[in-house]
Amino acid sequence: MVNGIADVEVRKLHTRDGDLVATLHLHLRDSLEDVKTAVDVTLEEVYYQRNDRGTSKIREGRSREATVLGEELREQGAGGQTLHVEIRVPEELATAGNYRDGRVDTTLTVEKPDEDRSTVLTADGTPIFLGEPEFTIDPDTECQPIDGFGASGAWWAQNVGGWEDQRDSIADFLFTREKGIGLSIYRYNAMGGVMSDISNEWRTGETYEVAEREYDWSRDENARWVLQAANDRGVENFILFTKTPPARITRNNKTYADHGVDSNLDPEMYEQFARYLADITAHFRREEGIEFDWVSPINEPEWDWEDGTQEGSPYTVAQVLELSKTILAVFDEENVRADLLLPEAGSWDFISGNGRNYADRLLTDPVLGDTLSVLAAHSYWSSDEERAEAGRAMATYPETRIWQTEWCEMEPGRDLGMDFALDLVNTVHSDLTIAGASSWQFWLSVSKVDYTDGLIYVDTDTRDVTPAKALWAFGNYTRFIRPGAVRIDTESNYEHAGDVENKSGVSLSAYLGPEREELVIVAINEVDSETTATIAIESEMDRLVLTPHRTSHEESLDALDEITIESTGDDVLEGNVELAPRSVTTFTGVLSD
């Protein structure tokens, strides 16, 4: 509070004659004469997934001088005054490219003629809205099918699965819709054998193989408990995935590669690896009642996997093709019903280019092209432009779906709050709406380290279990959008605003359930203030009751009061919904004739 200025209020931006206009109210404690005003407006641009090992919010402020349209000093009683300043916000603030979501920081400089300094007051967190955000949902225009949402059992299940005092609650958090988020896909990790030189004991584990086609099925007991817990709690689809062949058949008899090799698996061992996968799949179906719908033999083949910190093997594209066709032939011979899930690319750009171009290389192959119903990629290190390019590449192959099968933020430090949660759901939203992914799967269900890589965090000494907000935010998708659902078309008023793009920090996507009657809407509000959004749904119904479930700083998938939206009389249901600051809200309702 300087020079008699009590506070500054920045009114929400609006449009006038095609311009963005804002009004500032400076409430003055004392009379202030002979002042000059200058206004700078800064857009805080937020870019996701830019650093080279994960996702990070990188903010770059851009200052643009706003045009002052008018000033008026008004008396406000008790000797105080209010200075009203109206400004025109320059369109240059709305940038193109991969930036999305942001806010306006407005700085008013008040200069007194007899002083050499100025006083700068800033009202932060004012969202750029072209009026209020408006979304139109068309239930008759289907985009892509949704096969489900999941997470992996890597690096935790073989340990935490033995915690008899805590494992049931963890399984409930992950796999039930009543107590948790109801994952519909679970990736079971068949590990390649314990390596003493991998220093993190959670990143190495037992293999079932004892010798060629000889197995000890009592191994990996803890991870098998988690697998059965997922099955018992209703998980619909299971993936068997490996990051490496068993150590016995690798080139260096290790579960990670030596420096400079293009693969840690000799082609002479392709068939042994294929039969190893076939035997595991057959055993779990026959003896444990687990049907693996998908087998993923390769994981991020683009990286060298030579640092010895975890399992992994590189492969060239030619090797991916040759190994995959060998596995297909063995699966056919062994009558394995599981489909191959390939290639688990490390980032979206490998689908359409970056020296790999998996869409064309795999789907035009005369053997694989007719077999692969899904191509799998990970969302690490990916921009929205790369997502769009992958989506365009896959549009050439309409019979093949694209799945996102692994992502976490990969930033130092545990983030149990809404920063990580919002990064996660923004990545989900972008992968579903831009790349057109039919499935989205997280990486570590459970983490023990000081890193943003888990939905649930555990302390190995005390065995305390702490769900992160990211778990519940992910649940805004996983609990309500079930396998067999379909994403439907959604448009916003921002898409028709010329050069000014959606920078409001509000995103929305919509889905129909498997029976095409249940409507699911997921809305993300990243800004620090409550936001009112208008939702219009093309429908002949008179009214629709929506039930909200919200995740925010205070809430974890909490059910809220029902909302009723009414018909406008022209086959459109329309109403306003309130979105809490920095929150994710899922609205569900039933569309019926």
Describe the protein in words.
Residues 135-457 form the Endo-beta-1,6-galactanase-like domain. The chain contains ten helices and 32 strands. The strands form five sheets. Strands 11, 12, 15, 16, 17, 18, 19, 20, 21, 22 and 23 form an eleven-stranded mixed sheet that branches. The protein has three domains: 5-126, Immunoglobulin-like, CATH 2.60.40; 134-142 and 488-590, Immunoglobulin-like (Sandwich); 144-484, TIM Barrel (Alpha-Beta Barrel), CATH 3.20.20.80. The N and C termini lie far apart (59 Å). It is of the alpha/beta class and 593 residues long. Helix 4 packs across helix 5 (317-334), helix 8 runs parallel beside helix 9 and helix 9 (418-435) runs parallel beside helix 10. The protein is elongated.
Q: What is the name of the CATH class of the largest domain? A: Alpha Beta
| CATH architecture designation of the largest domain | Alpha-Beta Barrel
Which spans of ≥5 residues are poorly predicted at pLDDT below 50?
Answer: 1-6, 43-60, 93-106, 115-130, 495-503
Radius of gyration: 27 Å
Strand content: 35-45%
Major β-sheet, in short? 11 strands, mixed
Distance separating the two termini: 59 Å
SS content category:
alpha/beta
CATH domain fold name of the largest domain:
TIM Barrel
Average per-residue pLDDT, rounded, comes to 85
Count of runs of 4 or more consecutive helical residues = 10
Query: What's the helical proportion of residues?
Result: 10-25%
